[in-house]
Amino acid sequence: MTDTINPCSVSTSLLTLSSHSMKMDSFAVRKNLLTYVLVGILAAAAVHRNVLAQNSPSGGVLVDTIVSPEFFDGIKNQARADCAGKNFYTRDAFLNALGSFPDFGKRGSDVESKREIAAFFAHATHETGNFCYTEENDKSDSHCQNNPMYPCAPGKSYYGRGPLQLTGNENYGKAGAELKLDLLNNPELVATDQVVSFKTALWYWKVAVQPVIGQGFGKTINAINPIECGGKDRPKVESRIGFYTNYCKQFGVDPGPNLDC
By C-alpha distance, which of 148, 165, 238 is closest to 201? Predict the structure, then answer.
């Protein structure tokens, strides 16, 4: 006897297969879409990380954690109560100025960064007498040199001012050019504006000291005040070294080699 095929059952089977196939295709599409989305998210995250890496200084420590209120005030509290710098030099002003110099304390390893911070504050402590002086005591020399590019303004003097005692019309002119300030006509700003004062010190540090910072503390002395080196003024050199080694100890790092100049 010959089997008879029911057309209705065939039609139903085909519909079932078709429906199953459509479901599988839909699942595959959704899976592919999800894959594309995940790939896109990961790619965007990678780009974001690259941008952050390019815009952030590499290495180093968080300067504001090293230069704590206790550390900063520990220097300033050693100054006499009647010192002009006692209320002038502040940690907040330093951190504000630091925003313009993101490479400070961000060079190399944590140890190298702490040494740089220690060196900066060692020189600042020595130059200002524990943040006592905002400007040089001896104002008899205007420190005006013939310089067509950075000419002295009439009646203005360019003796030492600020944390590193910025000196000379050329330095005032160059610092002002970078900071977009007219320091040739207004050199007093370095001793009257707290943030400007620290900015000029960090500017000088960047251009004169950072290039030699890896060669030892002695090289930074030579960059700050070379006339002290070579045995010409041992007490001042020893004073700077003493502050530096003390601050390195506070930061928990070895001061490194080549301390003298």
Answer: 165
pLDDT tens string 68-107:
999 999 999 999 999 999 999 999 999 999 999 999 999 7
Query: 84 — phi, psi (to 5°)?
Result: -65, -35
Q: What is the pLDDT of residue 60?
A: 67
Weakly modelled stretches of the chain, pLDDT under 70: 1-60
Catalytic residue among 127, 135, 136, 228: 127
116 is catalytic: no
Confidence at residue 59, expressed as pLDDT on a 0 to 100 scale: 59
pTM for this predicted structure:
0.78
DSSP result, the chain: ------HHHHHHHHHHHHHHHHHHHHHHHHHHHHHHHHHHHHHHHHHHHHHHHHHS--S---HHHHS-HHHHHHHHTTS-TT-GGGTT--HHHHHHHHTT-TTTT-SSSHHHHHHHHHHHHHHHHHHHTTTT-SB-S--S-------SSSPPPTT-----BTTTTB-SHHHHHHHHHHHT--TTT-TTHHHH-HHHHHHHHHHHIIIIIGGGGGG-HHHHHHHH-GGGTTTT-HHHHHHHHHHHHHHHHHHT----S----
Distances (CA, A) of 53 to 46, 49, 63, 104, 206: 11, 6, 18, 17, 21
